[in-house]
Specification:
single chain, N_methyl_site, alpha+beta, 2 helices, Type II secretion system protein I, rod-shaped
């Protein structure tokens, strides 16, 4: 009687399944890195928008909430449109909401409370 020898190598089906699993993993990694790149790419505009709204808040603190200021600012070659709304509070302060938006999309908003006078 001869014992049947079993091959210890990989079959073609096992190899195909292994390649499929590795391909799916590689595609997932590529997709995740692409999403990270897109997210990081917009970070500069968001940071600059935050700088723009903080600068505008400081200008309003120094000059007063009714100061006439430009509707846009250019930082690092990127134009940011600035909008603000203002309303009186019960405590006698002004609640000023400042929004900076770039043409590419990312922006920032900031709410500050200023004295209800002409200057800080």
């Amino acid at each position: 009687m001869h014992k049947m020898r079993r091959d210890t190598g990989l079959t073609l089906l096992e190899l195909a399944i292994a390649v499929l699993v590795l391909s799916i993993g590689a595609l997932a990694a590529i997709r995740a890195s692409d999403q990270a790149r897109v997210s990081i790419g917009g970070a500069q505009d968001r940071v600059l928008a935050q700088v723009a709204v903080r600068n505008r808040a400081e200008e309003l603190h120094l000059l007063g909430h009714a100061a006439v200021l430009p509707d846009f600012i250019t930082l690092n070659g990127t134009r940011f449109d600035l909008r603000r709304t203002s309303k009186a509070t019960a405590s006698g302060l002004r609640e000023v909401t400042i929004i900076a938006q770039s043409g590419r999309g990312p922006g920032a908003a900031l709410v500050v409370y200023l004295p209800d006078g002409t200057g800080g």
